[in-house]
Amino acid sequence: MPKEIKNNILQKPFSRRALLKGGALGLASLALPVGNADASVWEAFLQKHFKEMNDDELQSVIKRMEKEYAEKYNVNFNIKSTKPLPGTLFGYGLDVSRCIGCRRCVYACVKENNQSMEPQIHWITVLRFKKGEKWVSSLEEAEVYYAPPEVPEEGHFYMPVQCQQCENPPCVKVCPTQATWKERDGIVVVDYNWCIGCRYCMAACPYGARHFNWGQPNRAKQEYNTETHYLGNRPRYKGVVEKCTFCIQRTRENPGRYPACVEICPVGARKFGNLLDPDSEIRYCIENKRVFRLKEDLNTSPKFYYFFAT
Amino acid sequence: MQKIPYVLYFALFVFLLLFEVAKAKDDIPEFFVPPPPFSEGIFPCSGCHKGMEVNTNRRELSYHEDIKLKHFDGWCLDCHNPNDRDKLRLASGKVIPFTESYYLCGQCHGDIFRDWKAGVHGKRTGMWNGKKEYRLCVHCHWPHQPRFRPLEPLPPPVNPEDNKYKKVTQDQIPLNPVNNISDKLR
Fold first, then answer.
1. Would A3 be classed as within a structural domain?
2. Which DSSP string do the residues of A156-207 spell out, in sequence order?
3. Fewest 10 Å CB contacts: which of A194, A208, A287, B32?
4. Nearest CA of chain A to the CA of B166: how many Å?
5. What's the mean pLDDT in A94-117?
């Protein structure tokens, strides 16, 4: 054996792989903030997946997040970690014959859920269709930017679209890091710390319900909703995907409030409830109204039911 | 002589029992948070109508000139009670207070009434699994012209094709993903 290899500490020859590995690790450790950074940077860097945490770990992570948010936004957020209620499967109903397209729901949602202002993120998109036109299969061609002085307009109808909380969600299937999953109460949630921002889920969603954070929330201090949930409306990081969570911070309580969009709707077109409760409003809709779901042929099985009450 | 009061007590008991059963059968929600939306200073109606003679003729009204009935081919006294102006009157002759006006609407709109009781027609707020707040029909539908009034829509979303967003310059693109993590935390 050549002399210079024998002289190394381990008394073993360096393989090409070992050299590259070691070199990469060394460089990475140089890049990580070591001296000046506090421990929370390392904690965040080594944070586990939310589903793998036990309750204590989750609480300590939430505490750290609250501290980070307080430093970053100068706002004291309360991050809840409410678990799904047993025997609950959330369902949503929307009466297309009542909706007047006033977009009150869009902005109530933005107010509640701390979306980014600039660039703008809306979780609800209100589509406008001409009466009598082909529509359900061509959502992409619908008018989104309508702005008449008054709604409803003659000869048009409106259909708000948001996350359909599919029972068989294609977005969850494609996520390479399992940063998004379906909770036991049927809400599809995103782990904003685990999301790598690849946007596969946005491509997979047939409803255009997922949105990408090109920037920070960019909201004025008083515009933040400080009542948050760790899987819901806590401020999102740049470069992660977000979506409607049926206002998880409001609904996952006992008793829980209606989602913000339900509460604001001036015509009462929006209905919300527990699909497993035979006396709920949503069950009444499904049993007594002509309900349909968007793009049923894709077998996503949404829990968002549109219906015509008249 | 002593027996009569007992019979009366029994009758009262039966009456109360029947009343309770009848109340329980009625699936009308218990409470409404907002009171009926009267125009300012209009209620109680008896404030003016007391002592006025009841005129059942159809005519141009000299006081309620803002009310043009665009609902059905009827007249004030089809719904308003002529004898006690602070109440409403059903077609059956039953007199109801303004806070229960849904019975009046339900006379014709039975299907809507049924949906409303189930919480499907109309706006409901409160708790999805708890106490709910209802609205009366008249909170959204002015009974004299019940069609829902048009609203001004809130602004449309920003169209990305409007080129509103600044182009990101090269130095704004994060090169080191690890730096980016610590940047997020600050």
1. no
2. EEEEEE-----SS-HHHHH-TT--EEE-TTS-EEE-TTT-----HHHHH-TT
3. A287
4. 10
5. 94
Q: Which chain A residues have a beta carbon less than 8 Å from that of B126? A: 257-258
A123 and A181 housed in the same domain:
yes
Looking at the structure, tell me whether residues A121 and A241 fall in a common domain.
yes
Q: Does residue A163 sit in the same domain as residue A179?
A: yes
* Burial grade of A56 (CB within 10 A; 0-12, 13-18, 19 or more): exposed
Amino acid (1-letter code) at residue B23? K
Q: Which of A37, A58, A80 is the endpoint of a domain?
A: A80
When CB atoms are compared, the residue of A152, A237, A273 closest to B184 is A237
Looking at the fold, whether A154 and A181 belong to one and the same domain comes out as yes
A159, β-bridge pairs: A127
What is the spatial distance between Cα A73 and Cα A67, in angstroms, rounded to a whole number? 10
Cross-strand bridge partners of residue A201: none
User: Beta strand pairing status for A241-242 and A211-212?
Assistant: antiparallel
CB A246 within 8 A of CB A229: no
Co-location of A156 and A250 in the same domain? yes
Q: How confident is the model over B2-51, as pLDDT tens digits?
A: 566 676 777 777 666 666 655 555 666 666 667 888 888 888 888 888 88
Q: A178 and A225 in one domain?
A: yes
CB A6 within 8 A of CB A12: no
Structural domain boundaries enclosing A236: 85-310
Q: Give dist(CA B99, CA B37) in Å, integer.
A: 10
Q: What is the CATH number for A309? A: 3.30.70.20
Are residues A275 and A241 located together in one domain of the fold?
A: yes
β-bridge mates for residue A161, sequence order: A125
**Structure tokens given for A58:** 């989750």
- ipTM value > 0.85: no
Domain ranges of chain B: 31-50+65-150
Whether residue A84 has a cis bond before it, omega within 30° of 0? no
Q: What is the DSSP string of A99-150?
A: -----HHHHHHHHHHT--TTTT--S-EEEEEETTS--TT-GGGSB-----SS
* Cβ contact, residue pair A256, B129, below 8 Å: yes
Looking at the 3D structure of chain A, how many domains does it have?
Answer: 2
Q: Let me know if residue A301 belongs to a domain.
A: yes
Mean pLDDT of A249-277: 94
Predicted pLDDT at B176? 44
Q: How distant is the Cα of B121 from the closest Cα of chain A, in angstroms?
A: 7
In the numeric block, which tokens belong to residue A60? 């300590």
Spatial separation of the C-alpha atoms in residues A287 and A282, rounded to whole Å: 9
Task: Indicate the pairing of strand B87-89 with strand A304-308.
Answer: unpaired
What's the CA gap between B148 and B97, in Å, rounded?
Answer: 24
**Coil, helix or strand for A298?**
helix
Same domain, A64 and A107: no
* Ramachandran angles phi, psi of A289, nearest 5°: -115, 165
